[in-house]
Amino acid sequence: MASNVPTVDVYLPSIIFATAIPVVAKMTKDPSCIEVSVMDKKFIARVRNIATFSMCRKSVLESLNIPLTKEGIKEMKAPSFGQNIQTLGQVKLSLMIGNAEVVHNFYVIQEMEEDFLIGADIMQKFGPVEFDFQNKKITFGKQVGK
Question: In whole angstroms, what separates CA 8 from the centre of its chain?
């Protein structure tokens, strides 16, 4: 069955995929936070272009009953957190941002304010990202000059 949902798969590093139609997500509780979903369950994600890697909170996996796909504690430099953080491992998830599906290997951490942190590793696959604080939306794959 064919799907009209744009897909971004970060497991193809030699292919930079940009959606033909920009993906727009409305900001929620806080500027730079959007609603995302995994397996039809809704979560809050903070979009941070200064974060190198995307992450999810361990409680997300527990609520979805999904195990880590790669276990092992690793210390990472995380300027956006203001300190180094300990990851518990990684998990491959299919995340819906607006009408786009993003398949990605997220680092899992014990605790953070939001459920997900969307970093530069995901944003670069869309192309330019525009934060429109006045209209409370984030556009992934913003076409330059439009």
Answer: 11
